[in-house]
Specification:
The radius of gyration is 45 Å and the shape is elongated. It folds into four domains: 69 residues, no CATH class; 117 residues, no CATH class; 47 residues; 141 residues, Histidine kinase-like ATPase, C-terminal domain (Heat Shock Protein 90), CATH 3.30.565. Helices cover 49% and strands 13% of the residues. The protein is of the alpha+beta class. The strands form three sheets. The chain has a five-stranded mixed sheet with strand order 6-8-9-11-10, with helices on one face.
């Protein structure tokens, strides 16, 4: 078992670094928030001690004789909160008595002060700078300096009033508002860190997936880049080794089939030569037909396996130009093959192999149905859909899933006049899939066969 080394590029190291950076950035952001967050970063009104201070002053002033209340209120002034006492019938007392206040402010003010008062006051008012009562003359604050003051007034038993003025808002949000803000920031940061972390971990895997996909386009020359975290490099090394073994196996198989084909030609030639001495013309005809069919099967199989192991490299070419060229070639032979689609569209793949695919499918349509119509559709993601539609009898539904199997033919007689040995569609499917695409066949509702070739966008 290999020992863990933090200096090596591994998924574990990337995860540790990502989490550590996330924690560091979180601490930095919290510090910046508390430094520059203004009122959002301050404790709420209860934690700031303002409510307890106001409650204490109200209890002391209300318990003192009337002659001492004004002096006690003035003595309780601080740089943050000012207090004033007004006798019953004074202009300030009347203004407080007759003012209009929001019920929400009153209920909220009583909720805060209730724990600090022994009994409910005769009347309580709470208002802000926008209330006309705040403009009453004689209030103990400078309106030009403190434009966001908060006011709370209590009417005492003798009809006098004590007014408390928080000169400016120096407390933060209320508990519920603070909780909502914290949850919002936490959610945002979790999403941001998750995206960064997942990107760090998923990017090497995406690169590996793209590399594996490219093996289908250039199976002989393609090789995965062995870079990234150690775990991804090990996977790439394993795939490269497996790819080399597969290519070696394909080469051995092709060489073996070529040798078998060459060795079979000699006995087939001897059989044909000896057939010349058969006196019965009918038996001689059957023998020569079997020899020719065996030779065709051998040549077709060898051609298929050689195409499967093709050394053709993927190049960029004009796909519509290829389709139009094939269509024009058949038109020159007297078969009306039409093309519908864009005039230009670039594609990267095996040019000659794809040309064999389209030619084989068009030739099948001409031979067993009618000259087809070629349609090229460009998809929004950059992929291509090529449709080959004819107006023939179609294919039995039970055989649609079997037409791409090797040596499968709808014509069971294997008559050489009606087709090959059943490897054309298998070869076409192998070529298309080696380019990262797929090929399917369906019967059209209005009659005829539709062959769909999907070619993905090459990244």
């Amino acid at each position: 078992m290999k020992r863990f080394s933090f200096m090596a590029d591994t998924i574990t190291r990337r995860l540790i670094i990502t989490v550590a950076l996330a924690a560091t950035v979180t601490l930095v952001l919290l510090e910046l928030f508390f430094t520059f967050g203004g009122k959002w970063a301050k404790p709420d009104i209860q934690e700031a001690g303002i409510v307890s201070q106001v409650g204490s002053v109200i209890r002391i002033v209300s318990s003192a004789p009337s002659a001492d209340r004004e002096h006690l209120a003035q003595a309780a002034n601080t740089d943050e909160v000012h207090f004033a006492w007004y006798a019953a019938g004074s202009p300030q007392a009347q203004a407080l008595e007759n003012g209009h206040y929001r019920s929400s402010d009153l209920s909220e003010g009583w909720r805060f002060l209730q724990p600090y008062l022994r009994h409910p006051p005769n009347r309580m008012v709470v208002f802000q700078e926008d209330n006309p009562v705040s403009r009453e003359a004689g209030l103990p604050y400078d309106r030009s300096r403190f434009d966001d003051a908060y006011f709370a007034g209590i009417r005492l038993d003798d009809g006098s009033w004590i007014l408390c003025i928080a000169l400016q808002r120096f407390w933060g949000l209320y508990a519920f508002e603070r909780l909502c803000l914290q949850l919002l920031m936490l959610t945002f940061w979790i999403v941001a860190v998750s995206l960064i972390a997942s990107r760090q971990l998923s990017r090497p895997i995406e690169h590996l997936a793209n590399g594996v996909r490219s093996l289908g386009l250039q199976p002989r020359s393609a090789r995965l880049d062995e870079k990234g975290p150690r775990e991804i490099r090990l996977v790439a090394e394993t795939i490269n080794g497996m790819q080399a073994q597969i290519q070696q196996f394909i080469e051995y198989r092709t060489t073996m089939l070529a040798a078998i084909s060459h060795d079979l030609r000699t006995p087939l030639a001897r059989i044909r030569l000896r057939g010349e001495f058969i006196d019965c013309p009918e038996q001689q005809k059957h023998l020569f037909r079997d020899v020719d069919e065996m030779q065709t099967m051998i040549d077709g199989a060898l051609s298929f396996f050689r195409n499967d192991a093709s050394r053709e490299e993927g190049i960029m070419f004009d796909l519509p130009a290829l389709l139009q060229t094939i269509a024009n070639d058949y038109c020159d032979q007297g078969f009306l093959v039409k093309y519908h689609g864009p005039a230009k569209a670039s594609y990267i793949g095996q040019f000659y192999a794809m040309k064999r695919v389209f030619s084989n499918l068009i030739e099948n349509a001409i031979k067993y149905a009618t000259p087809p119509i070629l349609t090229l559709d460009t998809q929004p993601d950059g992929s291509y859909m090529i449709y080959i539609r004819d107006n023939g009898p179609g294919i039995p539904e039970a055989s649609l899933s079997e037409v791409f199997e090797p040596y499968f033919r709808l014509d069971k007689s294997r008559n050489r006049q009606t087709g090959g040995v059943g490897l054309g569609l298998t070869s076409a499917q192998t070529i298309v899939r080696s380019n990262g695409g797929d090929i399917t066949m369906t019967n059209r509702p209005e009659g005829g066969l539709e062959v769909l070739i999907y070619l993905p966008k090459i990244r």
